[in-house]
Amino acid sequence: MLLVASIYFGGVIAHDPYWGPALTFKDTTITFALIGYAFVSALLPVWLILAPRDYLATFLKIGVIVGLALGIVILNPELKMPALTQYVDGTGPLWKGALFPFLFITIACGAVSGFHALISSGTTPKLLACETDARFIGYGAMLMESFVAVMALVAASIIEPGLYFAMNTPRQVWALPCQTCTRWAARTRR
């Protein structure tokens, strides 16, 4: 609730005549603030900054994933993306190349992410009660990552294929046809 309230009141403050300009920063200011935050958070002990921040972020992430799962179960959306597309030969608009080894890299992502969550996070290794908990936490992270991957797959599959490919195609590919259509529309208005 606090997150939703902060998003709402952030919009209110952004349009305020005094606070809006006072809290609008240049790109370089934000960059240096992030660098300073990273430096300070690297120096502070885990219990002071990383553990509370990651703990709160975990609730937000779990809430979003549970919301996605409930939405999929309740709404039962129609999957519009075909199971196999004509791009299976590696000539698709999103990437060029063979399906193998890309398919195995995609499947292994959950396992790699579970391992990554165990060893690369700033807090996980320091918060383990004993070393034997590492397998449970790493495997659980892998399962949760796989669950997130299924949610992302369903979210991508309910979009019309043409719209999905247009959203994920580089700007250079679709910029010229859009400019051409705009010119045609301008000519017909005259």
From TrEMBL:
Q: Which GO BP terms, alphabetically?
A: cellular response to starvation
Q: Which UniProt keywords apply?
A: Cell membrane, Membrane, Transmembrane, Transmembrane helix, Transport
Q: Where in the cell is it found?
A: Cell membrane
InterPro entries according to UniProt: CstA, CstA_N
Q: Which domain of life is it from?
A: Bacteria
User: What kind of membrane protein is this, topologically?
Assistant: Multi-pass membrane protein
Q: Which GO terms describe its cellular component?
A: plasma membrane
Q: What is its main location?
A: membrane
TM helices/strands, residue ranges: 30-50, 55-75, 95-115, 136-159
- Which Pfam family is one of this chain's hits? CstA
What PANTHER family has UniProt attached to this entry?
Answer: INNER MEMBRANE PEPTIDE TRANSPORTER (PTHR30252), PYRUVATE_PROTON SYMPORTER BTST (PTHR30252:SF3)
What name is this protein filed under?
Carbon starvation protein
